[in-house]
Specification:
Elements lengths: L1 H65 L9 E5 L3 E6 L5 E11 L6 E8 L8 E7 L4 E6 L7 E6 L12 E9 L7 E12 L1
Antiparallel strand pairs: 1-9, 2-9, 3-8, 4-7, 4-9, 5-6, 5-8
Length: about 200
Amino acid sequence: MFCAITQQMDKKDIYEHLANIYLDASSSKKNKKKIRKPSGIKNLSLIGLALVLMLSFFFVAKTHYSRKPLRDTQVALVLYPDVLKINFDFDPAKKEICSINLNGLNLTRYNALGFSIKKDDPKNNVSLRVELTNSFKETAFIYLKEIPSKWNEYKIIFSEFKAISDWSEMSNLSFIVEEWNTAEKKDVVYIEDVKVLQ
């Protein structure tokens, strides 16, 4: 009898011991899960932050590189930023010239001349001669007829200056008012924002 009771107690002790082991093991698993859970949230927050940073970088890069120039989509090289003034009085003179020295400027990358122009007297009929000369003494010109009395923008394609074959060394750009191309003997012609365009 004594042995049987001892055996039963041993079994009871064994069951308790096994139960304690099982409970300790399951509580340590719960603790491990609890420890991993915050690191998983931390990893998710780091991934979310990286995603937000990548999207914001993409958005900033896209808006920066897709932004268009404010006024014109063409590349321009300004030749004379101020207002040129041709104040003509054809009493003794026969023509008035306003020239810009281009100093051998290479215009092969460009294909047009642009500027704005107006005259003072709305009743006067004025034509303007626009002349280009290169370093090889090739000269070409065109006439702009009936200059307006309010600012008007002009764009002249270089191919219209037919006598110029080499645009690599340009020497002068001239704006000329001639006596025979104006109805009145006196007036003022204004030219501004003289540039070449690609």
